[in-house]
Amino acid sequence: MDVLLVNAGSSSLKLNVLSETGERRHGASADWSAQPARYRADEGHFEILSDRSPAGIIQRALDDWRGAGWNVENLGATAHRWVHGGPFRESVILTPEVRRRLEELRDLAPLHHPPSLEALDAVAAALPTIPHLVVFDTAFHATLSEEARTYAIPARWREEFGIRRYGFHGVSYAYAARRAHEVLGANDDRRLIVCHLGQGCSAAAIIGSKCVETTMGFTPMEGLVMATRSGSVDPGILLYLQRQHGLTAEEINVALNDQSGLLGLSGISGDMRQVRAAAEAGNPAAQLALRVYGRRIRLAIGALAAAMNGLDALVFTGGVGQNDVQTRADVCDGLQFLGIELDVARNAVCRPDADVARDSSSARVLVIAAREDVTMLAEVRRLLGRSSQATTR
Questions:
Q1: How far apart are CA 316 and CA 370, in angstroms?
Q2: Across-strand partners of 77?
Q3: Directed axis angle between helix 372-383 and helix 170-184, to 10°?
Q4: CATH code of 38's domain
Q5: Cα(138)–Cα(144) distance, integer angstroms
Q6: CA dist list (Å): 272 to 77, 96, 287, 313
Q7: Cα 7 from chain centroid?
Q8: What is the mean pLDDT of residues 293-304?
Q9: Can you give the pLDDT at residue 56?
Q10: Does the pLDDT at position 364 exceed 80?
Q11: Section 114-127 average pLDDT
């Protein structure tokens, strides 16, 4: 049996066909984070993307794979990465009731859920006879303690409206934590801080495989500076903008999700590659953007280490975390108090999965390739062994 894994992000759509044992059959991706938008199918096939609709991209990929000799009849299931599971504590098989409940979660992740819903419907329409699974990023953080997940807000907001901290990027964290233990040796007590740095950015404190704290909260907007999202801001700013300058809730939502972060700071782009190039060329706004970006990550690492009373390994993953040498150097500079000693030479030439700390460093520094597909495939194997609905919290 082959499995189609669908990862619909805020600026990309990634599709991978894996065998049940994890062998990669085919892949395709669409990326509109930079211009012009690009489509790629398997190795070497690249073109400018004209149709950005998930339905069009998915159908194009299926046609390309068929043309390469793949038999769609071998496909036994699909799995979709889902950013915000709300009350869902674990992955679930798609049913009409689950689809209705996913629609209710749309506003909790406004950058991700609309394209995810489109992709889910497109795949279900194109492949109507096989089970479709939804794998939630928030499920990994179900281990957060009551004090870690609770905001200091009125009881009615918490109890009636369900306002609490959920955490995100859990599919990535699950793989990164497992892979870190493989690289360093199994240890259920090892204290990890994993930084998932991409278009979205977050960090999590993990003991063994259990999340104890994370930077994102009720929505994926809390925490670190991201590509176009602000990260944490004083909520009083939002009230001030509404009361004194007449901005609507929707205007503030668009500004914080689409016009802030690296883009808002630099005035150039949310793409780290473009911001770094501008900074190296002497652009002061881009230079400030990178300083703010790195500082927020370092502050978060210090807080997460406090939640675990120390740190054994710092892990970088995600597109920026695993590819941007200077981001890793900037973040580690100033963390010597946690026992981190980055090896500049190793960091400059490393390829995931690698340890780039000096031999003398008491805390290791790992660069791990993001492999959400491995976690998703494991969930397919687990869920297709039973048909019960996912539990909720």
A1: 9
A2: 3
A3: 100
A4: 3.30.420.40
A5: 11
A6: 35, 39, 12, 24
A7: 10
A8: 98
A9: 86
A10: yes
A11: 93
Region 54-65 average pLDDT: 88
Residues 193 and 251 in one domain: yes
- 272 pLDDT more than 60: yes
Tell me which of 143, 165, 195 is where a domain ends: 143
- My answer on whether 205 and 310 are in the same domain is yes
Q: Give the residue from 141, 195, 181 showing the smallest Cα distance to 315.
A: 195
Please identify which of the residues 63, 64, 137, 330 carries the catalytic annotation: 137
pLDDT bracket for residue 203 (50, 70, 90): very high
CB-CB contact of 190 with 200 (8 Å)? no
Q: Are residues 136 and 238 both part of a single domain?
A: no
Considering the domain architecture, whether residues 195 and 121 belong to the same structural domain is answered as: no
**Residue 75 counted as domain residue:** yes
- Assess whether 208 and 352 both reside in one domain: yes
Q: Which residue has the tokens 């120390």?
A: 310
Number of domains the chain contains: 2
**Chain CA centroid to CA 362, Å:** 28
Final residue belonging to a domain, choices 82, 108, 143: 143
Q: How confident is the model at residue 389 (pLDDT cuts 50, 70, 90)?
A: very low
- Average pLDDT (205-209) is 97
> Does one domain contain both 243 and 98?
no
3-state helix, strand, coil in the chain (%, to 5): 45, 20, 35
Are 212 and 288 in a shared domain? yes
51 is catalytic: no
Let me know: does 91 contact 390? Beta carbons within 8 Å. yes
pLDDT tens digits, one per residue of 322-347: 999 999 999 999 999 999 999 999 99
155 within some domain: no
**Residue 388 within any structural domain of the chain:** no
The two three-digit tokens of residue 157, written as one number: 């907001």
> Both 332 and 234 in a single domain?
yes
Model confidence over 233-261: pLDDT tens digits? 999 999 999 999 999 999 999 999 999 99
Residue 126's domain comprises 2-143
Burial of 138 (0-12, 13-18, 19+ CB in 10 A): buried
Facing residues of 317 across strands?
Answer: 196
Residue 99 domain-assigned (yes or no):
yes
Question: Cα 107 vs. chain centroid, distance in angstroms?
Answer: 17
Question: Over 50: is that where the pLDDT of 392 sits?
Answer: no
Q: What's the confidence (pLDDT) of residue 223?
A: 98
DSSP of 185-222, one letter per residue? ---TT-EEEEEEESSSEEEEEEETTEEEEES--SSTTS
